[in-house]
Amino acid sequence: MSELRYRTNTATMNPETRNDSTSQSPVASLSQREGSIAASILLQSSPSHHGQVMKLNIPLVYSFSPTCVQRALRFTPAFLGLKPSWKKRYLIQIGKYLYRFSSQDGNGDGATTTTTTAASQSRMKQKGSPIPLDTIQSKTIHSTRYGLAQSINIQGNNSDEIIAVLQDLPTFCDGYFAITTDGNTRYYAVSTKEEASTWVNSIREGRQSSISRKMGHDGDKPYPKSWEYIDQRGASSYNRKLRIKERIRDIEQKEMEMTGFVGKTGVMPRGYYG
Fold first, then answer.
1. Cβ(159)–Cβ(103) under 8 Å?
2. What does the alpha-carbon distance between residue 16 and residue 22 come to, in Å, rounded to a whole number?
3. Please, how many CA atoms are within 13 Å of residue 167, restricted to the half-sphere of its CB?
4. Angle at 37 (CA atoms; ends 32, 217), nearest 5 degrees
5. What pLDDT, in 10s, does the model give residues 1-54?
């Protein structure tokens, strides 16, 4: 019996495999199954905007502590993770999503930048699932003599809510912006106020473009083929996150129902019909 051989059509390969002449490694295959995508692929596909930022990390124990306890926590060693800290991240806005990566330079101090090397790109690790641009609200944040603050309106009066005190701010950053999605707000610092405004404007434009495209109002505007593939991968990763959240909610709901049943009857259901 003759052996059938199939030849791969390189013209239809995706951006991650079009230049590879050998089969993918197990690590690459696992990465594709999980929906993640390498930072180098995104950067090679002409993203709308990208660059290194500093992300504010506020521990839960600090957030829920009274002011007097927060003051004490600021004097604890950094390795305990009990006080606010800034971690380097690399953001890439492309297509319909905003991708977040751990920066190539670790958590040390240094000015934010938009330049990367091939070696540094290979060390970037994706943080969480990509964020759909059409769900993001973005704005610039200002700093005061007390620290990083955002304006809030309480009963018709505007006031400043301190997010991070002055001594916690990175000394090499002068611009700040925030993105909010699904009720979760993330705060970022960059070198200048102009850079912060650029990020906010780019995200807002991407949001509007994504919404218009979803509603079919984009007209005949060209859309890169590589972005279509990247959007598919981004959607796969984001939808997987939603499925996990939904599964967790179902489990918690069943546990609550079971707790209520046991509370009323005093016994656990057992046997075939339990």
1. no
2. 12
3. 4
4. 105
5. 444 444 444 444 455 555 544 444 433 433 444 567 899 999 999 999 999 999
